[in-house]
Amino acid sequence: MENVYATLEERGFVEQVSDREQVRKLLEKPITCYIGFDPTASSLHLGSLLPIMSLAHMQRAGHRPIALMGGGTTLVGDPSGKTEMRQLMSREEIEQNAKGIKEQLSRFLDFSGGKALLLNNADWLVDLNYIAFLRDIGRHFSVNRMLAAESYKVRLETGLSFIEFNYMLLQAYDFWHLFKHYDCRLQMGGNDQWGNILAGADLTRRLEGETIYALTFPLITTSSGIKMGKTHKGTVWLDSSLTSPYEYYQYWINQDDRDIERFLGFFTFLPMDEVRRLGAVEGEEIRAAKEVLAYEATALCHGKDEAEKARAASRQLFGQAVSSYSDSVPTLVIRSEELEQGIPAYLLFEKGRLCKTRGEARRLISQGGAYINDHRIETFDQLIDFNHVKQGSIVLRAGKKKYLRVVAGSSD
Predict the structure, then answer these.
(1) How far are the Cα atoms of 69, 188, 220, 313, 327 from residue 45, in angstroms, in the given order?
(2) Among 44, 127, 131, 210, whose Cα sits 20 to 30 Å from the Cα of 275?
(3) Regarding beta strands 32-37 and 184-190, do their DSSP bridges make them parallel or antiparallel, or are they unpaired?
(4) What per-residue confidence (pLDDT) applies to 146?
(5) Is residue 183 a contact partner of residue 112, using CB atoms and an 8 Å limit?
(6) Is residue 83 very low, low, confident or very high in pLDDT (cuts 50, 70, 90)?
(7) Residue 325 phi/psi, 5° resolution?
């Protein structure tokens, strides 16, 4: 069986490792590893997908992954990568968020029979005695070394609260706790967590005389310099109620040509020979390679049925005349009374979120980039009404790739 370290390295997951040779040797036998996820929202987003995929690779190679919900650390707030303090959340909010995240993780990891573990650090952090914690744990930390960590250095310029300053200690305590109680010997995470992970390894060495290890992933941006998972509409979520499977599919199929091979390696389980083959295609075949990326990524997150629906809808919109459109396409319901009176095109484009503002919608239309049922809209205030309904709906398009189906509904 191939060592999973080689798999992660070949697919581009490895940024920093505390000891490459020892980690490679460690992974020759089954181990327990972990990644933490702070439940600051009801859903994880694409920024968490690389860590999730790494846990899935670990499990496929016979290791036991721990997905650690930060029910305790979220009460404090991680300063890493933030320019200002995160708004503090209640325990009830955090616990509710954690429930939704567990469901999302279950699509990628098999938690049955202890093959993977889902834990919550609130179980051991919330009831810690503060004085005892300072004496037993805090004494092992150098303030000078903590301030040298990248996550703190950046925040010192804008202001770092004392409560956030404790975050490194708590994450280090997590690593020690998981080693002590679950024999966890490897923590992984984004490269912005490097200092926090090393702090946990150092604490465990001091308390237990044992060596445990750190591995971080690159922080992903697209070739155009955009942070992974960000679009004109905002964040791309893993929860289908926040980002529909169709929108999720469209996010992937619209990636820059230069990113296809890299993203196929990160976000699918396709063999690397196939990844390299798809990454090398040119011309019209690039669209087919993007379709493979979009289908595979959507199937992992939302299941094959939803991926097939999204693919069918995308093919209809991009490859055929307006005839019948899948229910997977984003849909806006307009009251019949409004549609009967007619709605100016620029207002409808803004209302349907094809454009962020009315001004943006006016500019799009004046530049010839707005379409209704595949016909260019000539004036920004052109009225759209029941005369434009074809086979039960109106299809709006902004540019080449953004579609919206408009249907009439009741006023209730």
Answers:
(1) 15, 18, 13, 23, 24
(2) 44
(3) parallel
(4) 72
(5) no
(6) very low
(7) -115, 140
Q: Rounded to an integer, what distance in angstroms lies between the CA atom of residue 226 and that of residue 269?
A: 24
Q: How many other CB atoms are there within 10 angstroms of residue 374's CB atom?
A: 11
For tokens 């080693």, the residue is 179
Domains observed in the chain: 4-217 (3.40.50.620), 230-319 (1.10.240.10), 331-409 (3.10.290.10)
Q: Which two tokens stand for residue 30?
A: 């089954």
Asked if 345 and 373 touch (Cβ cutoff 8 Å), the reply is no
pTM: 0.75
For residue 344, the SS3 value is strand
Buried residues in 7-35 as b, exposed as e (16+ CB within 10 A): bbeebbbbeebbeeeebeebbeeebbbbb
Per DSSP, which regions of 269-401 are E strands? Answer: 331-335, 343-344, 370-372, 375-376, 383-384, 394-398
Torsions phi, psi of 82, nearest 5? -110, 140
Distances (CA, A) of 110 to 103, 159, 240: 11, 41, 20
**Lowest-confidence segment of 276-285, 323-332, 333-342 by average pLDDT:** 323-332
What count of Cα atoms within 13 Å lies in the side-chain half-sphere of residue 94?
A: 21
